[in-house]
Model the fold of this input.
Amino acid sequence: MIEITIGAISKPMEAKKIKTGDWGTEYPVVDIEKCSGCKSCEMFCPDLCVEVVKENRKKYAVFNYDYCKGCGVCAFVCPEDAIKMEMKEIYKLEVE
Amino acid sequence: MMKVVRGFYSVAHAVKTCKPNVISAYPITPQTEIVENLAAMYANGELENCVYITAESEFSAASILVGASAAGARTFTATCSQGLILMSEVLINAAGMRLPIVLVNTNRALSAPLSIWNDHQDSMFMRDAGIIQVYVENNQEAHDLIPQAYKIAENSKVLLPFMVCMDGFKLTHAYEPVNLHTQEMIDEFLPPYEPVAKLSVEKPLTFGAYAPPHIYMEFRVALQNAMERARKVIEDVFKEWAEFTKRDWSGHIAAENVDGAETAVVTMGSITSLVRDVIEELRKEGKKVGLIKLRTFRPFPNDEIKKALEDVNKVIVIERAVSFGNEGQVAIEIKNALYGGNNEIYSFAVGLGGRDVPRELIVKIIDNVMKGKVKQGFYFEGVHEFREVIP
Done:
């Protein structure tokens, strides 16, 4: 027996349980050397998956792959060209 | 030319060969890649004498096409689910204005709760709009139906919007070998669109004008008459296509092994392939069971259904939609077509919101009905036992 809520009502943070990171075909990879920590990606990420952290006086972007859908907005807005979108392994075999 | 392509491309390529003049759309999963492909073709200069307009909503996309179609353009759009419902106000007008807009609906569930997955609730919602609806089983059929859709919709006896319904994800995202049309082929099959009346600066006209009670009803009867005339036109074009390409998808319905059958299953869309597979196995075991693949849903092929199922004792309808407060729409229509007959009708709603329909479920449904384990009526199948709670 499963339970459903009337009207599909859900409480705050319920959606956090659903890891949407496997939706995308690509994922962002940051070049820490190039990253200036400007937070452009953090501001533009539509899924709040980027956080700029500070480590030994160096600021750089860290991605949360649990929720990143691979839209590529971060790579597009990056003024330092420090973010590259890479294809996930499972998508590398395509039928033409 | 046989190529392995996704459902999206099979539609986009077919649309391209039909030489549309105006394409307008708004992206929605699982339709997006159809219009993405078309936008790419447009950007690459592959679509001559064509404008691609990205609208700010489905309502706008449909509105743009109403204007374009009234001005004599061949038009195309694709949408589904909430997008189709948002278009509905405009599309119902398009039907009343007798504009032969062709659209592809990549069938998807309706909200709420939000679901992006496949079932037929969206197009069923548009059942009464005066729009021709044909459902396809695979991507080749979708590919083949596009030029036929234009030929039927633009026939001066018809002049109605045409909706090609293909299952979202199950077809759109699937790779299948598709025999792609060549341009010469479609140029030979599909004549250019010649509107009976069109908007122009020289000759201003109003489409879909006001009709007070003393005249409104006649327009609606005329719409019904157009639908009735469409029956014959659709059949003729289906036949013409079969002769032209040697790919015969049959008529309004495809009746398989129904003669002499005791039980027949009625299905629509991609689920047909699975049900056919199950039925073939049951027939090998000596069971007398047939299949009706329903292709045309509007206009509804009442006579064909009656003729095919007259002598079949038990009719099982397996569908992906429900009219809340009654039962599945296809079952309602089948019952109407078989009125006065002696058939027992069992209706099953399955696979709502993309719920998987495993082979075993189909076997169970057919088996239970054949063995008399279920009474005539309406059932949901493949549902978990659940309790509704207040959060």
User: Anything to note?
Assistant: DSSP finds twelve helices and 16 strands in chain B. Chain B touches chain A through 13 residues (CB under 8 Å).
